[in-house]
Amino acid sequence: MFLRRSMILLSAAAALLGTAMPAQAHDALKSSNPAKNAKVEAIDQVVLEFTNAVRFPKVIVTDAAGKSFQQGEADLKGKTVTQRVTTPLPPGKYTIAYRVVSSDGHPRTGEVPFTVTPSPTPTTSPSPPPSESASPSPAAATSAPPLATPSAEPVAATSGGASSMTVWILVGVGALVVVTVFVLTGRKRRPSD
């Protein structure tokens, strides 16, 4: 009787530990514009794209001093969150801080740093003074260097999957300890022949 009960408990513990746990992947930030650590000259909005549809977005854009630059509420369309910012942003370092609720109901937070660089000022080349024998020449044209466009470099977000797996491992180890204690105490009670 005791051996049968022990085998059932050991089988149950093995089934608990041996079952494949379903993936506990949360939705993650797939990309952002501006991208992580990007240098841009000017922006009027930030765009965050997630791996799945998210809900209840909150986006805050702050400078190094903590001053906020977001304008209005974040706009949500499926996997994409768009937040308008006050323009123009002064040159400096900024952080996009976000909080969304993933499709599995868990909150996800993260930050994307970027830098606004000063716009280059157009330079004019002085025209040479007119000479007596030369006819007037047209003024030299000014040219501004092309504006850099921010890249759509993907940004990795932290995932809570590892902590979920740790919990299951601890539960399994705890169950194994309980079964082992039960088996060992059962052997001590057994009358000897």
From TrEMBL:
Gene Ontology BP annotations: copper ion transport; response to copper ion
Gene3D superfamilies xref list: 2.60.40.1220
Signal peptide: 1-25
SUPFAM superfamilies according to UniProt: E set domains (SSF81296)
Chain intervals with Low complexity compositional bias: 132-154
Location of region: Disordered: 104-158
Top-level taxon: Bacteria
Keyword Transport annotated: no
Segments traversing the membrane: 165-184
Subcellular compartments: Cell envelope
Domain CopC: start-end pairs: 26-116
Name listed for the protein in its UniProt record: CopC domain-containing protein
